[in-house]
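Collaborator request log, item 7. Partner lab (contact: R.S.) asked for a structural prediction of BPIB4 protein to inform their binding assays.
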Amino acid sequence: MKMWKLFGIIFFCGLLSPSREVLSGLSCAVSPRAMQNVLSDAILQNGLLQQHLQGLVLPNIMGDGGLLSSPTSITGLHLVKVRLPRLSVVLLPGIGVQLTVTAKLELSGNCLVGLLSDLIDILVDVNITANIKCTNFESGTVQVIIEDCLCILGAIKIKLLSGLLSLSVNDIVLNKLTATLPGLLCPVVDIVINLVNIQLMGTLNAVIPVGTAGTIHYQLASLPFTSGLFLGLDLDGAVQQVGGSIIPHDSSPSALPPLLDKLLVLGLRQSFLTAVLSLLLQIPPQTFPCTPEAFSGASHLQEAITALVPSGCSVCRGSSALSIRITLAGKPLILLEENKATVRLSVMIQVFVKRLDGSILNLLLLKADLGLNARVSIAGGRLVLGLSLGSTSLSLESSDVGISNVSSLKPHFSGLLVETFLPLINAALSIGIPLPNVLGIPLLKVEIQI
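Returned to partner:
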């Protein structure tokens, strides 16, 4: 796969005055240059066209000669090699892709002119133009059909081993190839295009594991569409937990930004990203003693809590260390604004002591609503989020010892979460969100916009 100059990626949400409504997890805009690279690699560089043209046998060419020339017959004429193949692409709005292949075909056979037998080599320029349209969308796949295939012959060079060549042979070959080659080449192009379609569908329809938590099933959501500027693809992204439960996500109509100089723009919707975060962030409850070994600010936190305990609570003023339990509450939510991505996440924080009889005394049950600033990067074809604490909102759910105001505890618990829980979140997210390998276009020199 050749290294292409620039791949573009963008995350967005909400309504962006769409020109075409789509209801899927992802949308892609592929530039004509990218399509040309993709098809050139698949058809020419990988030898697919050469493979299916190799050994192509042409009908015998017969000429009766006439009054001033001898009868001519050319038999066993077959294709030896495809030379200098080139491919170009034009996107036809509302129709599909116009594919043009130019090449020199090297043909060889036996030539009989009168009673003289000779070997004949023919080099013919061909220009094949085919209009390709996608149709019959079903279950994430489409069929491709060639609506028009035009094959034009250019210059023809004929060489006999003996070096003798009459005008009659030249005229006969030109007329017969003009009549027969299009009918032979266009069906081959049709076969090649359908094979390429199968290959490219495989890049769009794939089940990709997300660590051990589950999978994302990417699938083409609708028929591809074309404008003069790009080929549009909408993909569903079904986020599935291990065991088969699918995490639902809503989709909103949206529009992709202009390609500018990029090969590809990939739009990931807020709801889809939120569903994948729910899959990744499956952190079990964390319980640990409130000691300096577990948390550097443990002594200050214990002092701050002790100061809030009403007088007369002897059991909670003992010298035994407090214990802390942190549990995820609800599902994460990613919010996308211009140049900013924030993850909203809630956790429950339980601060308790064990009585001598083994029972639990809850000093505090708190809910912390976190605003986490997201840093976004691409690594190994995956979207990786790194989170840092932006804001904390602390609220008291209950207290068995009568604590009623916890506002002074906010900095202590913010520090606790940054030191003990946020690393667990980032470790879970480090797996990354696997991105679809759209048409095999590599993720090189990625530009990320929010």
